[in-house]
Amino acid sequence: MMALAGLSHLLSGLALVGFSGVTLWLLTRVRGGMAALMPVPGRLVGAAAATALWCAALYVFSPGSSQALVAQALRDLAMLVWISGTFWTPQAPMSRSLLLIQRLLATTCLITLSLGTAAHWGVGGAGGAWLATGLANAAMIVAVGGLLVVDIGVRRGGSGLRTPVLAVAGGFAMLWAYELNAQLIGALTGKPALTLILLQPAVALLILPIFVVAAMDIGRERMRLSRPAAMRTIILLAVAVYLILIGLAGAVARLIGGDYGNLAQGLFLIVALGSGGLLFLSARARAWLSVMITKHFFEHRYDYRAEWMRFTATLAREGGQGDGEDGLGLHRRVAKALAELTGSPGALLMLPDALGGFRVADQWHWPTASEEGATLSLRSAFMLQETRHIVDLDAQRRGQNSAAEDLAIPGWLLADLRAWVVVPVLHFQRMIAVVILHRPAVSRALDWEDLDVLRIAGQQAASYLAESQSQQALSEARRFDEFNRRFAFIMHDIKNLASQLSLLARNAERHADNPEFRADMVQTLKISAGRLSDLLQRLSPRERGRAASVERTLIEPLLKAVAAEAQPRRALFTGCQAGLAAWGDAASIQQIVQHLVANAIDASAPDTPVQVIAVAEQGRGRIDVIDQGKGMTPTFIRDELFKPFVSTKEAGFGLGAFEALGLAQAMGGTIEVASEPGRGSNFTLWLPLAEAHSDPPSAGHMRKVGSK
């Protein structure tokens, strides 16, 4: 007991220091705008100061002394003043009966304070013995009345009260309940409950944080416990109640005598284990408990922050179409997210079909969703989209919804008692999906909060589905664009071949008897046939272009072949450095030069020469195609020349320069242009020089030729 008394003295000192500091802090807060926090802020400061004086009495005279009881009367009076000013106002006053109780309690505190102070002032410490019993009885009366007033005030305030107000009122109630319990035990047993009395400073320290919370809440609209913290608090309170019941059962059994204490404690243990096992094994029991706690302990059904974070995380989770929780496709993730939001164990997701209705496309924990007839008709889909109505199927089945016929809910859905709610998933007034939620373990009627949450969640889920549909449409459009681009190149090459064959046919009428012309014609036909074969390969979906064969290629034979091919149209002046060779694909180099020469001829007057010159320069092979035609502006060269589908020719595709540049880059080269309007153009093809390298360029520089 001596050790407990020493501990009590230490705790009293700590409580004195703590409440003194809090009183000073609250006083500064009152001067800085405390009125924004409490209706009567000065009364809270008074309650803190009176509690500090009571702690000083505990420290100086010890708990349970008559001096401490006198200081306790002052503390109780300050607490009652704060309660009356906080929960009742002149605009909403107390009832007459409660006002009478309040005045009786205040009078008791004043009489206790006055008589106790007078007695100690007059007789000193000798008056403490005969005062203790009377002061203790007065303290019990005030504690009982204070608990009653707190209960009425809190129930009257309801959910509109802020957490700091409730915390302060709860702290006062806890202090009164503890002191009442200690005094009652002493009155019933005839002996003071010294252990409980000596632990009063510990209880005072427990209520010290509520004043800190009140001071810290200045300027805030609300401060509430999070749902996880509230649920853990409820669990701890349940455990505390269980321990108290066990202790009371043991105490009652000891008073009665016999072996009833062990029996009572054993029964309590069996009941507790049974309840815990039921909650652990039964999903229905857990759901029922969750509904009861949410209904009676929280202002809102949903913890919106936590639910929205989980909802968004479920929708955004990457994965394929597998059945694993981390591999769900988007459709199944949408069904899962909406189901988890309302506690449903499963869900169906329906998507539009070819007939304008909706058909089941995916499910989450609804294994028999593939039955025939599981569709929504066109009329049902139209009515859901127009009304944006979230359908409570239980209300439909009971006939409580007057719009049931207008919504045209199909019979298979009403007949399936697992179906609970129909949620239209709308995106900009367009219904892109329908989600049907499975009935939860503990069914309940939907309220306004459920409807609002499902409506907003459906809109967010719709944005994910719409984005997925847009990505799919974009992917298909890209495939079509790729095919069109490839076909455009083919058309460009076919146009060139047709023009070449047409010219050959016209010249054949005039020079058919010339043996040299016939030889050139046969060679030209072979080249054209080879090009057509290449075109057929490039049209094949398996052929993404032929790989460039990196080899040492002599330039002079290629230029002679180009000159021979262009000779019917225009005489070329060609010049080539002897033995000039480059790394590349011979067919690709010839195709580039042919295109550049054809463009130069088209841009020049009929009597204007075109020059092709090839030399080695700066460690690279250089092939120049020079004309004296119309020329081009720098803006056209920079912005349009090498872009596909941009052409200055009336029947041109605008692909020649683009394809030529792609072929040159695929071989590790490039094309440069120098041109002035009215003064002609100079196209320069740069290629890796074979003599300057012992090995061909790396594979990284050689890309697929013809893939452009």
Could you characterize the architecture of this molecule?
This protein has 708 residues and is an alpha+beta fold. The chain has four domains: 223 residues, Rhopdopsin 7-helix transmembrane proteins (Up-down Bundle); 57 residues; 171 residues, GAF domain (Beta-Lactamase); 159 residues, Histidine kinase-like ATPase, C-terminal domain (Heat Shock Protein 90), CATH 3.30.565. The protein has 23 helices and 15 strands. Strands 3-2-1-6-5-4 form a six-stranded antiparallel β-sheet. Strands 9-11-12-14-13 form a five-stranded mixed β-sheet, covered by helices on one side. Strand 1 and strand 2 form a beta hairpin. Helix 10 crosses helix 11 and helix 21 runs antiparallel to helix 23. The radius of gyration is 47 Å and the shape is elongated. The termini are far apart. The C terminus is likely disordered.
CATH C-level class of the largest domain? Mainly Alpha
What is the approximate shape?
Answer: elongated
CATH architecture of the largest domain: Up-down Bundle
Low-confidence stretches are 33-40, 218-223, 319-326, 541-547, 699-708
Overall mean pLDDT score?
Answer: 77
Q: Helical element count?
A: 23
Look at the helices and sheets and give the structural class: alpha+beta
* CATH level-3 fold name of the largest domain: Rhopdopsin 7-helix transmembrane proteins
Total domains, how many?
4
Strand order of the largest sheet: 3-2-1-6-5-4
Biggest beta sheet attributes: 6 strands, antiparallel
Radius of gyration, rounded?
A: 47 Å
Considering DSSP H and I runs of 4 or more, what fraction of the residues is helical? 55-70%
